[in-house]
Structure formats: C-alpha cells, structure tokens
Amino acid sequence: MTEPKKLYIKTYGCQMNVYDSERMAEAMGGAGYVETGSPDDADMILLNTCHIREKAAEKVYSELGRFREFKEAKPDLKIGVAGCVAQAEGQEIMRRQPLVDLVVGPQSYHRLPQMEQQVREGKKALDTDFPLDDKFDTLRTRAKAKRGPTAFLTVQEGCDKFCAFCVVPYTRGAEVSRPATRILEEARELVDRGVREITLLGQNVNAYHGAGPEGDMTLAQLIWELDKIDGLSRIRFTTSHPNDMADDLIEAHGTCAKLMPYLHLPVQSGSDRILKRMNRSHTAESYLRLIERIRAVRPDIVMSGDFIVGFPEETEADFQATMDLIEEVKYGYAYSFKYSTRPGTPAAERPQVDEDAKSDRLQRLQALITRQQREVQDAMVGRKVSVLFEKPGRLDGQMVGKSEYLHAVHVVDSSLKAGDLVAVEVVESASNSLAGRILPD
Ligand code: SAH
Ligand code: SF4
Ligand code: F3S
C-alpha cells in the first residue's frame, strides 16, 4: 500500500469557508490524501481564502510568500489557493506568486481531485467557473469518521442583494438553495457521526427556498424537518438578512424548542441615509421593529450584529445614529469593521472617509459593544442554561461548551465528556466565558 499523501488546509474568512474546507479535505480523501495539522510535512498546501476586506485578501499573498521555503525544501510540494480570493483574482494570483500551482473558486472545488492530477503532471490548474454541475452532487456523502458534537451545513450559497460595499455576490455568485432532501440526508449523516448541533449556513440563509417534496420550502419549514431528526438537539442558522426574516421563521423562534435563542442579524448602519447608499433596502426603524417582533415571541433571544463604520460619506451624525441603534438593541455579540474599499463594488468609487475618522469611530463603537456584550453575559449569572460540551478546558477535569445563547461555559466535573448536553447553573462571568456548575437531575 502506498503512503497517503498529506494535505494541509488553512482556512480564512467566514463559517462557509470552514465548511468548504471540510468538504475539500473529504474530496481529496478520495484522491489518497489525509489531512495534516502542519504545513511542514504536507504534500499539498491549500489556502482557503477570504476577499471581504483588503486586509483579508493581502494576508494570502504574505502567507504564500512564507511557503517559498517549504517548496524549496520539497520541490514536489503543490500549493493551491481556494475560496473567494481565488474567485476574485484567478489568474492574477499565479502571476503575482508563481509558486502557486492551482487556483480553485468556491463553486468548483469538487473538481479538486482532477486538478491535483493535472498539477502532479507538472501543469498549472485554474478553475473559477460557476459550473452547471453542482459540487454537492459530486460530493454526495460525508466522511464516515466520528466527529465532534457541532457541525456546519451549507443550505444556501451566494447573494443577489448587492450591498454597495460587498464582494460576496461576485465571489460566491447568485443565490442558490440546495434541495431540502439533500440537506436532510446530510444532517442525518452528521447526526450518525455524533453531531448534536447543526448550524445551517448561507450568505443569506433566511432567503433559503430549496426544493422540497411539495414545492419550494422556506428556512422555517426546513428547520421543522430537521427538528424531527432524533439525536439532533440544537439548530442554529447564520447569516440572516433583515429583509428575509419571514413570519414563519420569527414564529419558529417562539415554538421550535431545538431552534436556539440566538440570532445574528447584521444591520451595518443605524443611519437611513447611509443604509440607502449601502443599498440595504431596510431602514433603522424597520430593523428595530423586526427585533421587537422577534423578542415578542422569544424574549430571551440574544441578538448579534455586524457594523461597518466609515462607509463613504458617513458623517459624525450618521455614526451617532448607529450608536443610538446599538443602544436600543442591546447586543450580546457584534462584529464591527472599518469600511474597506473593494475594487469593482459601487462604493469604491464614492468619496471616502479619512482613515483617522474611521479608526476613531470603530474604537468608540467597539467600546459600546464590549460593554453591552459584557452586560448580556453578566446577566446570565444565577441562571440555568443548557450546555453542549465540546472539549476539555485548561484545568484538570474541566470541560468547555456553549450555552443555548452561544456563550462559552466551563465546568469542572470529571464525569463530563464531549457531546454531553447538560443543565448548568451559571455561577460566574469572566471576560470571555462563564463558569458553571452541574445542576442535580
Ligand atoms: N451575508 C452577510 C455577511 C456578509 S460579509 C450579510 O448580509 O450580512 C460579513 C460582514 O463583513 C458584513 O456583514 C459586513 O459587516 C462586513 N463587510 C462586508 N464588506 C465589507 C467591506 N467592504 N468593508 C468592511 N466590512 C465589510
Ligand atoms: Fe454582502 Fe449584502 Fe449579500 Fe450580505 S446581503 S453577502 S453584505 S451583498
Ligand atoms: Fe470571505 Fe468569501 Fe466568506 S469573501 S466572508 S470567505 S463568502
């Protein structure tokens, strides 16, 4: 038997890239590769990249430079670039960095095994098509190995919304939903391998409209189908767009026990003037009313958001409107970014905010968010939460997991193991996690 070849994948960007990396590793498993945790002994290095901000994209080139010495030490080492930078920059990557052998976009990675053959023959391989053959048809079943208690599952990909700042519609293509039967099949496979919590992924996951047995299904309908799977205890979904929060999905937050009380609902800005320029097609007010409706059915839901500061033409007053919106929502989590000019997007052409103003606004916004996050987390002390334990902690006999609200919770109890779902009383709130104790049955 020949030694398996080793594949090292480094993943950047969003959760969908994490999912894609798993699928790429599985596809390469069929071509005789096993995954390795370090580039040192790899026969192939694959960077699964993100193009969302300039920094993310630039990181790829500096990382590639670092691999030069690996290639010098091992001339048959193959280097590949996958993901959104691959899609956006294609051939340009090979021009800028000749040591790259292979470039594959997010919709063509099922073709990796053939591309690997090609590079083994000493050729370069590039595939950034949006092919008609569906990658998920080729990669039908998941790997058989037992796995950890949580998993991602892509149900929808791409975006038709074209926010003025965003590259995703260009790198991931048009919005496409996978058929419900395939998703349910994959979910059952995951549960059979030990998964108890599934996070449904999509760039606009709540725009899901995949084919079901009786016509297209909504995300809520899909969630109710997943709810029937024995052994699956928790369902989450991300990322949602405010305009696609349908009534049945809001309602599911009040009635579906497996659907966790956490919602990531990016708003980007609290200023209607800026939202309009961003092409977001919602207002600050409509977003706030939406959250009111969600909280009416699920009062304890923890809200999460994304914010961009320093979008072209954003004034101090616009920024203040964002701060006011944050004050009103009270977020449990939030991700905030300085606007980054992305070539080819409409906002790139508009009058830019200067870098110092962006940094100053980001700092103020993050201070507010940090305070809110801490308040939401501190309010958990004394409450009973359920924790799905995932891995050992730093202390002896300590296990760490996530509450239904997505807070990290650690408990010292040597009887606990990964995959246990247990009622816990929160006893303390530290900077990034909660401490708890197991409640007697
Ligand atoms: N599909 C999701 C998330 C897309 S990307 C949504 O619609 O919300 C994740 C986040 O990156 C965005 O929510 C936005 O806050 C941020 N982002 C996207 N493009 C950006 C840019 N050009 N500069 C700064 N942040 C950006
Ligand atoms: Fe980007 Fe907007 Fe689409 Fe989200 S909805 S992926 S921010 S274009
Ligand atoms: Fe980045 Fe592509 Fe995800 S640009 S955020 S990896 S969809």
SSE arrangement:
Blueprint: E1 5-11, H1 15-29, E2 33-35, E3 44-49, H2 54-66, H3 68-73, E4 78-82, H4 83-89, H5 91-96, E5 102-104, H6 112-120, E6 125-127, H7 135-138, E7 150-154, E8 156-157, H8 168-171, E9 176-177, H9 180-192, E10 197-201, E11 211-212, E12 215-216, H10 219-227, E13 234-238, H11 247-255, E14 262-264, H12 272-277, H13 284-297, E15 302-309, H14 316-329, E16 333-338, H15 355-378, E17 384-392, E18 398-403, E19 408-412, E20 421-429, E21 434-438
Parallel strand pairs: 1-2, 1-3, 3-4, 4-5, 5-6, 7-10, 10-13, 14-15, 15-16, 19-21
Antiparallel strand pairs: 8-9, 11-12, 17-18, 17-20, 18-19, 20-21
The chain binds S-adenosyl-L-homocysteine, iron/sulfur cluster and FE3-S4 cluster.
FE3-S4 cluster binds next to helix 1, helix 4 and helix 8.
Enzyme class: transferase
Family: Belongs to the methylthiotransferase family. MiaB subfamily.
Function: Catalyzes the methylthiolation of N6-(dimethylallyl)adenosine (i(6)A), leading to the formation of 2-methylthio-N6-(dimethylallyl)adenosine (ms(2)i(6)A) at position 37 in tRNAs that read codons beginning with uridine.
Textual characterization of the structure:
- This protein has 441 residues and is α/β, with parallel strands linked by helices.
- Among the domains are: 5-127, 3-Layer(aba) Sandwich (Rossmann fold); 144-260, Transcription Regulator spoIIAA (2-Layer Sandwich); 384-438, Nucleic acid-binding proteins (OB fold (Dihydrolipoamide Acetyltransferase, E2P)), CATH 2.40.50.140.
- Helices cover 35% and strands 23% of the residues.
- Helix 10 (219-227) runs parallel beside helix 11 (247-255) and helix 14 packs parallel to helix 15.
- The longest helix has 24 residues, at 355-378.
- The radius of gyration is 22 Å and the shape is globular.
- It starts with a strand and ends with a strand.
- The structure holds S-adenosyl-L-homocysteine (SAH), iron/sulfur cluster and FE3-S4 cluster (F3S).
